[in-house]
Amino acid sequence: MGMDKKQVRLRRARKTRARIAEQKTVRLTVHRSNCHIYAQVVAAGGGRTLAAASTLDPELRKEVPNGGNVQAARVVGKLIAERAKKAGIEEVAFDRAGFRYAGRVKALAEAARESGLKF
């Protein structure tokens, strides 16, 4: 029995996370489902979430009716950058969690960069 899509994605993600762990930097990790997109800024050791944003946030639900599109990803990217800056974080390593750097993942990353997060 071969690996399914999720196992393949997690295998890709493991390599990236290992590389980021060696650098001992704070990471911006992204997860997307069909209906929502989530972003977290995780401490260097991986033990603490320093900032988080997703399309499930109550203030975003009013602004974005559908959480599964590029526009919603941009809004989440902007929000995670603001929250990271508020927590005193300027520079992160981008962890796309094995997802392709296209569409919603790319939109979130670019919005976070435009809002002043460096990676």
Task: Give the low-confidence spans.
Answer: none
Helical fraction: 40-55%
CATH topology: Nucleotidyltransferase, domain 5
> What letter string, H or E per element, gives the SSE order?
HEEEHHEH
Provide the number of structural domains: 1
Instruction: Give the strand order, joined by hyphens, for the main sheet.
Output: 3-2-1-4
Find the count of extended strands (DSSP E, 2+ residues). Answer: 4
Distance between the termini: 38 Å
Q: What is the CA-based Rg, rounded?
A: 14 Å
Q: Sheet with the most strands? A: 4 strands, mixed
Q: Examine the secondary-structure arrangement and name the CATH architecture.
A: 2-Layer Sandwich
CATH class: Alpha Beta
What would you say this structure looks like, in words?
The protein is globular, with a radius of gyration of 14 Å. Strands 3-2-1-4 form a 4-stranded mixed beta sheet. The protein has one domain: Nucleotidyltransferase, domain 5 (2-Layer Sandwich). The chain is an alpha+beta fold and 119 residues long. The chain has helices spanning 5-23, 58-63, 70-86, 103-114, and strands spanning 27-32, 37-42, 49-54, 93-95. It starts with a helix and ends in a 5-residue tail after the last helix. It is 45% helix and 18% strand. Strand 2 (37-42) and strand 3 form a beta hairpin. The protein is built from 4 helices and 4 strands; from the N terminus they run αβββααβα.
